[in-house]
Amino acid sequence: MRLIVLIIAFLSAAPAAAEQVFVDVELVLAVDVSRSMSPRELEIQRRGYAAALTSRDVIDAIREGPNGQVALIYVEWSGWNAQRVIVPWTIIKDAEGAEDFAARLTAEFNDSLRRTSISGLLDYATGLFEQNEVRSLRRVIDISGDGPNNHGRPVQAARDEALAQGIGINGLPLMTREGLGWQWHLDDLDEYYRHCVIGGPSAFVIPVLEWAHFPDAVRRKLVLELVGLPAGPESGPIHRADGYDCLIGEKIWDRMMDDWN
User: Fold this and answer.
1) Three-state secondary-structure class, residue 107
2) Would you call 87 helix, strand, or coil by DSSP?
3) Structure confidence by residue, pLDDT tens digits, 197-212
4) What is the helix (H) or strand (E) element at residue 8, kind and residue range?
């Protein structure tokens, strides 16, 4: 009897288990800050995301979800082991929360980093979902970038491992012609993303051809991700074993190194 009393007393004194938080989507916003991006482009991206997050369309999309809240994290990336969290995991459920996220996003602007490793970003971002202490039916990595993978392991392997964990991947290829990275640009970067980067049931690519269009593209992308709808069949993923050369970025890098040497 004394043992039973002690067990009851122990259970009564133990802290209650943390209440599980459910959100409609866990979304990693992964933004390219490789050396090919100019300082102007880096600032445009931060301000574009801030404007999109606080837009009426995005706030309405958040509120209309079954749980009425989402979890976001904003990460900047470049080379294989070069990623930095600008705004950590944050639950947003209203305009006030979105405005706070946007304010933190634009409080200061960092310098660019070297190389371009989409595979490194995917490996890093996949691990972030274990750190947010929330649950959802959808986990998504949203990648914006102005060039193909040229550092770290092949992008297809990293993509396939993320997809095997039930993580969706969307792309925002930046097909502008500004900054120092003209020699790394692909004229069909949108097709590279479709064939080699994105994946999942609702995956899509929304290319940005001019920086003036960036805020609207981000807003449209966020709404689609928050409600879980594809952008359309023409924007969806293509995975063909004998199709696009997903090592094109590595080959461009090797060729440039040979020329410089």
Assistant:
1) coil
2) strand
3) 999 988 999 999 999 9
4) helix 2-13
